Every structure is written in C-alpha cells, then in structure tokens.
Amino acid sequence: MIPTGSTVRVMTPSALIVEPVLSDALFLMAAVSALGFQVTTTDTFHGAVERLLVPPALLIADIRLGEYNGLHVVLRGKAAKANLAAIVTSAADDPVLRLDAEQLGATFVTKPVSARELRAAICRTWLRDPKSSDGPIRSPFERRQVERRQEVAAGSVDRRVAERRRDIHQLIQSAPPIV
C-alpha cells in the first residue's frame, strides 16, 4: 500500500517521430499521443540522430529524409536500443523497402493511413517480441496484397519463361540453315 501524501511516478514511454511533412507529423503526433506516449518530433535525419542519444521506446520515421532515409534512422535507433519498436512510413508501397524495413525489425506502413490503422500498427509493433520468428506484422489487407503479388509474380515468371522459349524457338526456325 502507498502511504498517504506520497506520489507515485509513472514513466511515460517516449516516441520519436521523424517526418518532413508538417501535416503528416501533426497527424502522427495526435495518433501517438492518444496512446499515451510523450512525443518528440523532428523533420531531418540529423535531428533524429541527435534525439537518438536518448533512445525512445517507439520510433516512427518516414522513408524520405533527404540524403538519408527512415531505414538509416531505424538502423541508428536499433544500434542505440536493440529492442526499439520501430515503424517506417512511406507514400509508396515499395516491396524492396518493405522487406528492408522488416529485416531491420521495423513495421512498414503505407500512407495514407487512418489513425485507427496507425494505432493498431503501433500496438502490434510495441507488443511484438523482438526474438519471435513470427515474421513481419501485416494487417489482413496487407497480407492479401502480398499473397496477390506473389501469385502474380509466380505467374509472370512462368509467362516470361514461356515467352522466351517461344522467342528462341521462333529464332531457331527463322534462322537460315548452317552449311
């Protein structure tokens, strides 16, 4: 039991948002603050590096940060704090960047994103066990997109192989006989 007149200090988790677009930064601040985080923001890679001297509990970084990108910030953040919960945001759903983010242990979120989806991604990332082998965290919509892309990619590879075989066969048939 806590004695009367004493104060209990509750540590508020901190979050660092690295976002160059002001409207997006304000949106992210509101969503993260609603979850009880103490939010710090910056709009540059160098500003993020300065703020990572005291690593936050949560890092949200946009992929576009001038000469550097959000993956560089995540890399620096993970070096400072291995269990850092990290999210990388991007306006483009680039599968290569998504894979790179996931390999760094970050969640990749494509903008525009609703406040509800963002809060869900933050909660999943925050609660994820960094040692788990569950693979990347994806919403059902993202899983369907990935499955569709894999199906299309597999079909397009088969189609391209068949087209190349046909082209080679046509070249062989149309080539003059070798004497």
In words, what does this structure look like?
The mean pLDDT is 81. The protein has 179 residues and is of the alpha/beta class. It has 2 domains: 14-133, Rossmann fold, CATH 3.40.50.2300; 138-179. A 5-stranded parallel beta sheet has the order 2-1-3-4-5, with helices on both faces. It is built from 6 helices and 5 strands. Helices cover 49% and strands 15% of the residues. Helix 3 (70-80) links the parallel strand 3 and strand 4 (85-90). 25% of the residues are buried. It is elongated and about 95 Å long. The chain has helices at 22-33, 45-51, 70-80, 95-103, 115-127, 140-174; strands at 14-18, 38-42, 58-62, 85-90, 106-110. It starts with 13 loop residues before the first strand and ends in a 5-residue tail after the last helix.
Low-confidence stretches: none
The count of β-strands is: 5
**Could you describe the largest sheet, including whether it forms a barrel?**
5 strands, parallel
- Determine and state the CATH class of the largest domain: Alpha Beta
- Going by CATH, the homologous superfamily of the largest domain would be Response regulator
Note the overall shape: elongated
Whole-number mean pLDDT? 81
Helix-and-strand structural type: alpha/beta
Q: With helices defined by DSSP (H or I, 4 residues minimum), what is the helix count?
A: 6
CATH fold-type name of the largest domain:
Rossmann fold
Beta-strand proportion: 5-15%
Rounded to the nearest angstrom, the radius of gyration is 23 Å
User: How much helical structure, as a percent, in the residues?
Assistant: 40-55%
Strands of the widest sheet, in order across it, are 2-1-3-4-5
Distance between the termini: 101 Å
Order of helices and strands: EHEHEHEHEHH
What count of structural domains? 2
Based on the structure given, which CATH architecture of the largest domain is correct?
Answer: 3-Layer(aba) Sandwich
